[in-house]
Write a structure and sequence with these properties.
Blueprint (H helix, E strand, L loop, with lengths): L7 E4 L9 H17 L2 E4 L11 H14 L22 H14 L2 E4 L3 H13 L15 H9 L5 E4 L6 E6 L3 E6 L7 E3 L7 H11 L4 E5 L6 H11 L5 E5 L2 E2 L15 H6 L4 H9 L14 H7 L10 E2 L2 H14 L2 H14 L9 H14 L9 H4 L12 H7 L4 H13 L9 H12 L3 H13 L7 H8 L1 H15 L1
Parallel strand pairs: 1-2, 8-9, 10-11
Antiparallel strand pairs: 3-4, 4-7, 5-6
The structure holds one RNA strand.
Length: about 500
RNA sequence: GGCCCCAUCGUCUAGUCUGGCCUAGGACACCAGGUUUUCAUCCUGGCAACAGGGGUUCAAAUCCCCUUGGGGUCACCA
């Protein structure tokens, strides 16, 4: 099959909703393959469903692809020599192909109504019999057909599927897959309103755009024979195929909204990093080798090979995505991380002010203190709330630590000691704390615990020294002092 | 149900095409230790899989067949 043509691959989204994770991964694989082969990656918008299309969907899909770092060589906003790249603008081209199909006889009029056929299907279902379109309209004479059309009877154009023909593909992922033409019904290629259907225009456009490799989801595998037949009718070279396995939900079925978020946009909103998402998607159904699970786009490209894509479906593993995100987040520079996390803080109502250099420096200090504790950008506002407002009311063990018998004495002692310190934060908090604990005859922990709770409301969190620095002298002392009367 | 696809730890996977190096490797999650004033990070260790049955072969996770299980698809949606 056409393996020596220049590599041209496409991602063909339908702008009827948000970009699905499966679609995002398909796009990623197409992109990686094109980049690996030095080929062309193009975007074609399949907006033939005028009912469900929306401008907003298209924009969001393009934004999502860009967010992932996938750039396209031809398509919307990029142009190209084989456009238009919107199917809604290719009507003239389709009309020519339709005329040709009718003339050459591989498209024929069928006057059966959708309702009739639906009724037949119903009957078959009730009788538990397998239903397939009965191509009796094929027998309609040209005169009768013309006459009924002239009389204004509504009709669709069906594709005349040949008898006893073997339709096989050598799928890059699955190997040889063969269909018998008897299994393929005379499908509708042009609707009664004159608009062509997906299987028809998809093949038409792939041929016209010289697509060399069709890399798409496995759910399209059964569409392939229909599309191959179009190539054969057209006398165009067939592309080669790679049917990528599905992304499965926790239930083992095709990922759907029932089992969690399915749109890439949902994960963007949750604060996942684009590098992490790219990495994770590239690891679903593909692997570089037996040990590499964190990699750059360049490394993915260098190793990319359609034959290395798995055959079986992969369950979307949130834990793994979460982990990868943490890996990237921890490897980021404090500066970049501060920038990335700022929108999430502002969304939570923090830092909604002009960011002068002092504020930025403080934010970077905060981010540095929390970096080892974060896996998602969106986690910071909740974790660091104590640094933006009141001390959250301690709960559970934290409340207990603050209510300990010696806590008031220890806290006021430590507040006094800190107040006397020359620098802020004190160079060695431990050196200040130790004697106080000893004087009270308790372990260091007995002092540190209530101190943390008094300052942040929590037993966990950054190092004490960082907490004092972030809070500042005044605020730190105030919190240590005000915690005392609360418990006494 | 017809047609098509698939089958290694709970999960993502390496190994399968080109049988022996596999007493099946890595990672996530989980569990247990260690480092750390806390939490987290980090380090060490542990748990855990070739769906079943037949072949072929000196040798099978790897090749063949059957069974079972799972999935996809059966629109004038894409």
């Amino acid at each position: 099959m056409a393996s020596h043509r220049p590599v041209r691959v496409r991602f063909a989204p339908s702008p009827t909703g948000m970009l699905h994770l499966g679609g995002a991964r398909t796009a990623l694989f197409n992109w990686a393959f094109a980049r690996r082969e030095g080929g062309t990656f193009l975007l074609r918008v399949e907006d033939t469903d005028t009912e469900r299309n929306s401008e907003e969907s298209l924009r969001s899909i393009l934004d999502c692809l860009r967010w992932l770092g996938l750039d396209w060589d031809e398509g919307p906003e990029a142009g190209g020599d084989v456009g238009p790249y919107f199917q809604s603008e290719r009507g003239e081209f389709y009309a020519q192909s339709i005329a040709r199909g009718v003339e050459e006889g591989w498209l024929y009029r069928c006057f059966a109504t959708a309702e009739d056929l639906e009724q037949q299907r119903e009957h078959a279902r009730a009788a538990k019999k397998n239903w397939r379109f009965d191509p009796t309209s094929r027998g309609l004479s040209q005169e009768d057909s013309d006459a009924r059309a002239a009389a204004g009877d509504s009709f669709v154009l069906r594709f005349r599927v040949p008898d006893h023909e073997e339709i096989g593909i050598d799928d890059h992922i699955r190997g040889r897959v063969v269909f018998q033409s008897e299994e393929v019904e005379d499908w509708v290629a042009v609707r009664s309103d004159g608009n062509p259907t997906y299987n028809f225009v998809c093949a038409l456009d792939d041929a016209a755009m010289s697509i060399s490799h069709v890399i798409r989801g496995e759910e399209h595998l059964v569409n392939t024979p229909k599309q191959i037949l179009v190539y054969r009718a057209l006398g165009e070279p067939e592309p080669s195929y790679a049917h990528v396995p599905l992304i499965l939900g926790q239930d083992g079925k095709k990922l759907s909204k029932r089992t969690g978020d399915t749109a890439l946009g949902d994960y963007i909103a949750k604060g996942y990093l684009p590098q992490a998402m790219f990495n994770f998607l590239g690891l679903l159904g593909f692997s570089i080798d037996d040990a590499t699970d964190v990699f750059t786009p360049e490394e993915l490209i260098a190793a990319f090979d359609l034959k290395r894509i798995n055959k079986s479906g992969a369950i979307f593993d949130q834990d793994r995505l979460h982990w990868i995100c943490g890996e990237y987040l921890r490897s980021m520079s404090v500066r970049d991380l501060a920038q990335a996390v700022l929108p999430h803080l502002q969304q939570a109502g923090f830092l909604n002010c002009a960011m002068d250099s002092a504020k930025t420096a403080w934010l970077e200090q905060l981010v540095a203190a929390f970096q080892p504790r974060l896996t998602l950008l969106s986690e910071l506002p909740a974790q660091a709330a104590a640094f933006f407002g009141e001390v959250p009311t301690p709960e559970g063990k934290a409340a207990k630590a603050l209510a300990a018998e010696q806590a008031p004495v220890l806290l006021s002692a430590v507040a006094d000691a800190l107040e006397g310190a020359n620098d802020w934060p004190p160079q060695d908090v431990m050196a200040i704390a130790k004697p106080i604990a000893e004087a009270q005859g308790v372990g260091l922990g007995k002092l540190m615990q209530p101190m943390r709770v008094a300052l942040t409301g929590s037993l966990g969190g950054p190092e004490l020294k960082d907490i004092l620095a972030l809070l500042g002298r005044e605020q730190s002392l105030a919190r240590l002092r005000s915690a005392v009367p609360k418990v006494s």
